Amino acid sequence: MTAAAAVLVAVALVILPGRVGAVRRLRRLHDPAYRDSSPLQALPARTDALGVASALDLLAACLRAGLPTARAAAAVAAEAPEPLASALSRASDLLMLGADPASAWAQATAGVADDSVTALARMARRSARSGTGLATAVAELAERRRGELEDAAAARAERAGVLIGGPLGLCFLPAFLCLGIVPVVLGLAGRVLDGGLL
Fold first, then answer.
1. How many angstroms from the chain centroid is the CA of residue 96?
2. Where do the Type II secretion system protein GspF domain residues begin and end (predicted)?
């Protein structure tokens, strides 16, 4: 009796999470209070990481073409994802008004927590102080950002493979034991016991 109860509890634990999700979805369809509160509205906006790398590539191309930093930043800000677009726009506005490049980039990126934006501002300030070209550094930043994204995607794929292995093992191991090992052992045991070898 206790084995049957344990099996029923195990089946309920497997089925219950799907049932609860289905009930919530059905309730969301029929109840106006649930319909208005979409879970997608509560999610924070994510930065388009590949868009940031592409915008940095575009900025490097504009700088290589000979555009001044202010005009290049303004041209790229129109298509760049946030928070890079607002930082480029603010830096462009400040630079066009005649602000010192180091202070313009510092003010434009104040309060921005994105690593690519702060790295770009650091490179722009260094370039303004030393007089070195900014295009090569920005292109390298875009390539580094793309490499980081590839590494992160590869790590997620490897982790998914490891996480999938556990449930697959739990599904196939009992089947392998029941359909592969147990019949062979029972067949051998029957021959050994019937043949009088023991």
1. 36
2. 56-178
| Cis before 81 (ω within 30) | no
Exposure class string for 13-46: b at 16+ Cβ within 10 A, else e: eeeeeeeeeeeeeeebeeeeeeeeeeeeeeeeee
Least Cα distance to 143 among 77, 56, 48 occurs for 56
**CB 76 within 8 Å of CB 88:** yes
Read off the DSSP letter of residue 155. H
Taking a C-beta distance cutoff of 8 angstroms, is the pair 91, 104 a contact? yes
Taking the model in full, what pTM does it have? 0.57
Amino acid occupying residue 164: I
Structure tokens at 88: 């480029």
- Six-digit token pair at 8? 């029923």
Q: Are 47 and 69 in contact (CB under 8 A)?
A: no
> What is the DSSP-derived secondary structure letter of residue 179?
I
Find out whether 54 and 129 touch, Cβ atoms under 8 Å: no
Contact of 64 with 70, CB cutoff 8 Å: no
The span from the CA of 194 to the CA of 86, in Å, is: 84
49, with CB counted inside 10 A (0-12, 13-18, 19+), is middle
Instruction: Please give the full DSSP string across 76-134, using - where no structure is assigned.
Output: HHTTPPTTHHHHHHHHHHHHHTT--HHHHHHHHTTT---HHHHHHHHHHHHHHHH---S
pLDDT exceeds cutoff 60 at 93: yes
